[in-house]
Design a protein that fits this description.
Blueprint lengths: L21 E6 L5 E4 L14 E4 L8 E2 L6 E5 L1 E3 L2 E8 L3 E7 L6 E4 H6 L9 E5 L5 E14 L2 E11 L3 E2 L1 H4 L2 E6 L4 E6 L10 H59 L11 H52 L1
Parallel strand pairs: 8-13, 9-12
Antiparallel strand pairs: 1-2, 1-3, 4-12, 5-15, 6-7, 7-8, 7-11, 10-11, 11-12, 14-15
Helix pairs in contact: 3-4
Amino acid sequence: MKYIPLLFLLCIFFPPPVISSQYYKWVDERGNVHFTDNPATIPSQYREKVSESRYGGAKEPATLSQTTPQRVVVHFKREDNAILLNALLNWKLPVLFHLDTGATNTMITRGDAVSLGIDPDRMPTMKGYIADGSLVEFPTTVLSSLSVGDAEVDNVEVAIGTTRLLGMNFLNKFHMNIDAESGQLTLERRDAVVREEESPEVREEKTHTIAELENSIEQVAIAIRARETMVAQVASEIKLHEEKRAKVESIIRETKTGTHFEGSDISSDSGTTKKLEKLDETLERINRQISLRKDQIEMQHHEIEQLKARQYSYQRLIEKLR
């Protein structure tokens, strides 16, 4: 078994945060965690549940999820010397991370934050050193969940920048082994698999996410039924066209048989030739219609398979959340 050194892509070191003001934390109806240093910007319906703190870090420490097994094996991709890992943010947003043991904190992109309902410009900030020694200020937020395969960590503080880095505040929860030949990353829990109780915020967001996924499954089921209905309708149309084709082919045969002299290719009526030409054109149109509708059915079957795969993935996510 061959092991390779981990790549230091964008070494980001976050020193202790400089405390300059208070920030306020609130959770919206979607379960998204928000931070602001201006309480006037908090929607009125959430002000009773606001918690105050000093910005620079998560109020609750990152913890291994109860669902994380003792040992997790995930496959990674290679891009030159970089290791790329598929991950899931807040149980719903799939992303591709660069694994970076030189990064103290994990980093997501501004686009990721927006997709999660987070406004980076209203988040608290933290200063960190990047690879060239520069001190850069990053917006930060806290993810309720970050998972790589079945390895899930809750309450993960992340910087918001221009790239995706899976840093040590996620990785230090595990012992790591990288098998370059098989393209596998093995993560083993550092703790004794003591199942800690989930925070109310995590439970609330999981409940909301499950409800969203169940709604998505129902919407996908509706889409599948609509396509199956369309397939049945198009199949009926094909049957009608095939019946028309059989009639036209029968007329063509009868016309050819009844309008030729025995043992001769000479037609008994010059108008019959035009009639046969029109019948051939009609037959060609029917064949085109049949071919077109068969293509439609094939396309609908392909879309149905894709929808069923999506439905299955949603069901797997729900099973994991429960």
